[in-house]
């Protein structure tokens, strides 16, 4: 049964990711992937905070949100390809900034998501 919850959540997450990719932003810097990953990090932090403060959350709900929605929404493989492409194109500064911002901002997103979950609990 868990596979069904992951699949449904993954479809929702992937659709959300695709929707963000349709925003009319054209730049050499992969800002939409960065934004997607920060939102995903904040969401998974929020979910983790809810789960850690509420032991009544069903395992299927956790699978739906964390593995399904967040897994389908966030874009580590895209991030990796874009960072590699920046370096391949000799855009070393942009590549380094992208990696740095992705890691730091996503960690901040998780922190903020967990803090937000404490406000509603």
Q: What is the 3D form?
A: globular
Radius of gyration: 16 Å
The biggest beta sheet, please? none
**Model regions low in confidence, pLDDT < 50 over at least 5 residues:** none
Q: Structural class of the helices, strands and pairings?
A: mainly alpha
DSSP strand count: 0
- Terminal CA distance reads 28 Å
Structural domains: how many: 1
Oligomer: single chain
Query: Averaged pLDDT, please?
Result: 95
Count of runs of 4 or more consecutive helical residues: 5
Task: Note the run of SSEs as H and E.
Answer: HHHHH
**What proportion of the residues form beta strands (DSSP E)?**
under 5%
Q: Classify the helix fraction into a percent range.
A: over 70%
List the helices and strands and how they pair.
Blueprint: H1 2-21, H2 31-53, H3 59-73, H4 76-88, H5 92-120
Helix pairs in contact: 1-3, 2-3, 2-5, 4-5
Summarize the structure.
The protein has 121 residues and is an all-alpha fold.
Description:
- The protein is mainly alpha-helical and 121 residues long.
- It has one domain (2-120).
- It contains five helices and no strands.
- The chain has helices spanning 2-21, 31-53, 59-73, 76-88, 92-120.
- The longest helix is centred in the last third of the chain and has 29 residues, at 92-120.
- The mean pLDDT is 95.
List keywords for this structure.
globular; single chain; 0% strand; 121 residues
